[in-house]
Amino acid sequence: MAKVGIIGGGAAGMFAAVWAAGFGHEVHLYEQNEKLGKKLFITGKGRCNFTNACSVEEFLQNIVSNAKFMYSSGYGFTSQDVMDFFEQHHVPVKVERGNRAFPASDHSSDIIRGLEQAMKEAGVKVHLGTRVRHVSCPDGAVSGVVLENGAHIALDAVMVATGGLSYPSTGSTGDGYRLAKECGHTVTDRRPALVPLETGESYIPKLQGLSLKNVTLRVMGKKKPVYEGFGEMMFTHFGITGPLVLSASSYIGAAGLSWPLDAQIDLKPALTENQLDDRLLREFQSAQNRQFKNVVPELFPARLVPVMIELSGIAPDRPVNGISKEERRALVEKTKHFPLTIVGTRPYREAIITQGGVSVREIRPGTMESKKVRNLYFIGEVLDVDALTGGFNLQVAWSTAYAAASAVWENIER
Prior knowledge:
Layout: E1 3-7, H1 11-22, E2 26-31, H2 38-42, E3 51-52, H3 56-61, E4 63-65, H4 71-76, H5 79-88, E5 93-96, E6 100-103, H6 108-122, E7 125-128, E8 132-136, E9 144-147, E10 152-154, E11 157-160, H7 175-182, E12 191-193, E13 197-199, E14 211-220, E15 225-235, E16 239-241, H8 243-255, E17 261-266, H9 273-286, H10 292-295, H11 305-312, H12 325-336, E18 338-345, E19 353-355, E20 376-378, E21 386-387, H13 392-413
Parallel strand pairs: 1-2, 1-11, 2-7, 11-20
Antiparallel strand pairs: 3-6, 4-21, 5-6, 8-9, 9-10, 12-19, 13-16, 13-18, 14-15, 14-17, 15-16, 17-18
């Protein structure tokens, strides 16, 4: 039997604790908060989209950074395995649009309760309100941890499951990065991801609260789009948010681009520019004597009308029969390429995840063990692995946690 210490009582830490104890180890879980799973509790607006019921191939396609690294652990413990685990631990599961899996109750607390009960049954020793100050790793191997109170705890293996920097109110302090560096690991640049974006145009705040459905968002890189997606988004007082925007933020970060960035929204993606021009022409011909400002509402949501009039450069009182072909084409261009300038992201407190972390080049992908320090493991968000929304980031946590837990005994014996 090995004595295993796990630093962090979030999704990855609790899951690793269950399995490591189930494999016969003495497991100690150290959590600096007064309770477990604080970030898990707010996941999915409190409903907890805990995985995605898709194939492993699709799971890997939804990982933005270092998908290849997740190949082994992704196949080693799949989303079906995760759903089976919770069902077996008395947490009924349901699958909704986009294969998103939730507890049937829509309460994230059920996921946490299921993990806590599983840990209790497995004999995990949980230490709440306990911060780990250092990991002891002399001579290239783990020997234990040093707690905030100075106590040294001898351990055979240590798993770092401290999460990232997002939602700092839940205790995400970035401790794991410090612990990794102290043990000689490289930590890549970190940035907020799956996060709203700030824009520079003065007309965007005027659209605050307006949601757009079935639009295309395109963000330009140096020579080609770094992101292009179809779906929903919303305007805010600072810029833009919503599913399309959150995904765009991750791809922007992964590309390492600097601000500002040009972006555009195709407000009518179902129509080509020529088809849209034909529609405008029909609208104008059927209302020849009406003023431009009274025809535009036929084309756009009410909140968007004043901005589109402003961008078109056409006087609102102009009769539509006096609008030239060139002016009409300019309106088409603005409709198909509604302009935005992205000037930055919102802070970590509004980010779902952290992009960047412990370099996966220094981690064994099949076991999550450090290549630099024997019996030291990194699991979950502390790693430089991030994915899109839809339950994929929590699947990263489950898969990496299981890989580490199932590898501990074999690694200690070698």
